[in-house]
Amino acid sequence: MKLFTFIFIINIHKVELYFIQNKNKPICANCKFFIPNKNECSNFGTIDIVTNEHHYKQALAVRKDNNKCGEDAIFFKSNYFKFITVPYYFLVENSIIVLIPIIIILPSLLVFLFMIK
Hints:
This protein has one domain (25-116). It is built from 4 helices and 3 strands. The chain has helices at 2-19, 59-64, 82-93, 99-116, and strands at residues 34-35, 40-47, 54-58. The relative contact order is 0.10.
């Protein structure tokens, strides 16, 4: 019975390898060029020279095109500041970014005013 269990575990392991095809390839969400709230790649895009607006390519389209990043993520660079960029894009998406200076400046201004008196 132990031999049958051992063979069964080996077969499950082999089947698992067939279903997970891209498990060793870099993920766009961990790249420093990835814009999470729009699923765009900031490494590939254009700038409108009149209005200075940035138009980026979709990350999925960039990964499918072998002339750009490709499936192997040729231009992938790790995002070591993901703990800052993800909350930043969340705030931008929800238009809370305007409230941050008010939340930071107002208490310091009040402290400064009380110190003067």
